[in-house]
Amino acid sequence: MSQSFSQHRRRFLGIAGGIFAASGFGLIGSASAQSKEQSKAAAPAVKVGAHTTIGPVKQINAGVLDTGYVEMGPATGPAVILLHGWPYDIHSYADVAPALAEAGYRVIVPHLRGYGSTRFLSNDTMRSGQPVAVSADIIALMDALKIEKAVLGGYDWGARTANIMAALWPERCKAMVSVSGYLIGSQAAGKVPLPPKAELQWWYQFYFATERGRE
What is the number of domains present in the chain? Predict the structure, then answer.
């Protein structure tokens, strides 16, 4: 798991550079048109493993949740929301968040529902892991923090959350950086098996879905 985490961490460090490009131009497509020299000048220097912790964690009632989140950078800076994936958490952005904050961004890193200190406000609320529910959670968090529009950055489940937010609430999304995610998937296409070598990479999914894995 540690090797997998390290591999993921290196891949989504590109979120920082992507956010600089995307937020500077408003749209990913426009950002990709800039020269390599401009990209290098805009992207913050982020060193893998420079930070091992992130915090302190704040709490705020947002929608159906008491959401735990970390906030860095100036309160008046452009808002950036960084969304983690499964089975990771906010520590995935321990290197990225400080770099963006130092550059003047207001960085919000929330624990998604089911993670960290985020809890349901009511025992009667139906528990759901549907991607659109997670996306609605972040919209509620933006409302609670009085953030009208933000740059969204995410990987894995966080990437899908950002994708759905941009599709359903485009007026709340200034730009989006999506890394190593599922995008908005097709349930039908998901039933088609991949080549054996590709399926092997998802061994833990099969294990977690069995009684043996639960035990």
Answer: 1
